[in-house]
Amino acid sequence: MFIHLHRRCHKHKSEMITDNRTRLTDIEEGQTGIILEIDGGRHSSKRLADLGLAPGVEITVITSSFFSGPIQISVCGSKLVLGRGLASKILIEPK
Question: Would you state the pLDDT for residue 6?
Fold first, then answer.
């Protein structure tokens, strides 16, 4: 319960800092951005952190399938493929 409330407060702070944030699934191929926050539970946040996806990390979208397909991204020189559901939990600030 405490973690959920803390995350909700953190979300408001992020919205106050920047209003140029968007979900990873909404940016175009070739576009780069900085991860601002992971909008998910403990399990999905840990899974993404284990892959090197955490706030402050720069990512580039390599390919993005329309509708329900996966998204291929580049992070720190590595290429990753994420399902659209998991990718939609990543909030970024496009460059």
Answer: 38
